[in-house]
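Justification of computing resources. Each target in the renewal requires a structure prediction run like the one illustrated here; the chain below, 351 residues long, is used simply to show the kind of job we budget for.
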Amino acid sequence: MLSVVNLTLHETAPVDQYWNGNAWQAGAVEFSSGVIGANVGGTTFGWSYDATAVSFFNASTYTVSARGVDAAGNVEAAHGSFDIKFYLEAPQPSVTLDQPTAPDLKHYGPATSASVLTILGTGQNLRSAKGVRVTLQRLTEPASYWFEPTQVWMSPSTFTDVNVVAGSPQTWSLVLTTPYSVFDASYSVTATPVNNAGLLGTPISRTFVFDKTVPASAFTNPAVVACQGANACLNALPTISGTSSDPTNVSPPSIQSTGVKVRLKNAVTGNYWNGSAFAAPISEMSIDPASFSGAGPFTWSTATLAAPPCSTARTTRSSRTRPTRRATTRASRPPWRRSRSSTTPRRPSAS
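Resulting structure tokens:
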């Protein structure tokens, strides 16, 4: 009784090489992957081999040889020549990677994970079944690859097959479960197109960072010097400054991607500083990472903004400094400059 079929898949031109069941190699090799099918008469059975995993090359010539093996391990004698020869040429497949979006090294976290939990794009000349291969690699040591069907990270390089939806262009998407278990790591996702002949097109890749650690910040101004009922008592606040860091030191740190947001609240009215006045609703001042200094912790200041956050001239009218006026009292004026209502006689005119 037949058990399996041994196959020899040989590319004869333009490169002389053999498929070993997983990759191409220089020397001749036979692999046992032919699956025995239904009986077609007497002791003859059909067989098949799923060649979707074969990395065929376009505009190339191939030969195939097959030998049966029975349940006792007896192997059919080698044939004098190949059993079939064919020339393969098919339209080149192409693919786009639309999510996660460009550019590289965008930063994501639990609040923005949707953008990296669904990998999607479009393509041309893709086969409908397993038309795209998606490789998700964790670049942070230990480097490993995500295999979605079993939802595990593994050290050998692997990919997840994705089916394609017909259309112009064709579309594809892969929904991932929970690959981002490491708190802070960088990743690379690669989409490789496959056409109906099993030919691979040019892959497209994107790198990104998934950061689950909350940053740490501290104030340097205003200085915290306790006074009655508050952390500090001030009569002016022209700038707010401080430091921020990524505790796990992701490279590059996520804080360099998002910047710092500062919120200044009037504890009496409940209003927030919006850049020109205290008002509702909640407002924040955004400090661009380009203005940071240092290599981490990073130093920042609201002095980089177009307007200072708050100063004496922008608080309340009662806190403004008024110009000093010369004080003169009624009693100190000369008699002739006193009010007409005074009982003092007017200054006599010259005779």
